[in-house]
Design goal:
8 helices; seven-stranded antiparallel beta sheet; globular; alpha+beta; Alpha-D-Glucose-1,6-Bisphosphate, Chain A, domain 4
Amino acid sequence: MSRPEEHRVEHRVVHTRKTPAPARRLYELVARAELWPAVFEPAVHVRILERDRGTERFQIWASVAGQVKTWTSRRTLDPDALRVTFRQERTQPPIASMGGSWEFREDGGGTEIVLTHDFAAVDEAALPGLRAALDANSEKELAALARLAEQQHPVEELLFTFEDTLQVPSADDAYAFIERSDLWPDRLPHVGKVTLTEEAADTGSPGVQDMTMETVTADGSTHTTRSIRLCFPGESIVYKQLVPPALLSGHSGAWLFDKNDKNDKNDKDTVTARHTVAIDPTRIEEVLGEGTTVADARAYLREALGANSRATLNHAAAAAAAAAARPAP
């Protein structure tokens, strides 16, 4: 007897874009999957599971048709041919199978990016919606990739990561403080308002939060951002800003909670606030003033974003200390 998957129809779709950006620069951006949340609009979080010379496995969470989906992929990277091939090992409906490739073909003074997908749907009735989501996300990814790689500045100057770490009495108590961002307006002086919705987590899966936050700056002005957060209990809270500040084309980050071995002389746990940002150089002078540079933007972002994170870390540490000081019931 034939199995249902034997009747699934394989489909193939190709998306292309021509850009003056160098092929090598484009390839390297695609090869560094851990940076995708700050580069590609749909990507929320990437967790590297295995990495060896030329191959890797990762789990990715991404926004697909307004919902956060996750899947695991295996990739083969060929830096000589400027080609990356991928295949989903664990899919989510309506996808039955998905694979494809990124290719970067030098074309005169520029590059043609070729993004190919081969896929099958669980049910052919789901195909139009699946194809629409695939088209939308592919076009967004190609546009973002070209936009960043076409800049005159080196990518490493525009796309960078920084972090701050603080010791706390209890990583669990600090996690509880940061996870309850709906309480931040009463707990953090730089937060004016938070609107939070949350999807219940399946067993073994992170909770998904949709958070809109109004931040108050030192001069009293406010700006509003919207983020998707994934909460891995006791381990980490990662986020992707859907509406980043004007100076950025992308911003992702993480709160990382590390429990110390209590047999160690230092019995403190640690919490790290990490930011990965992609600067939009076309907005620098508009935001920071005439004559300002990428270096000025890097320094400004390091201080502005870092100051807010350090304030949150300090308040989380204080809350953890207060919880530790309370007598046991």
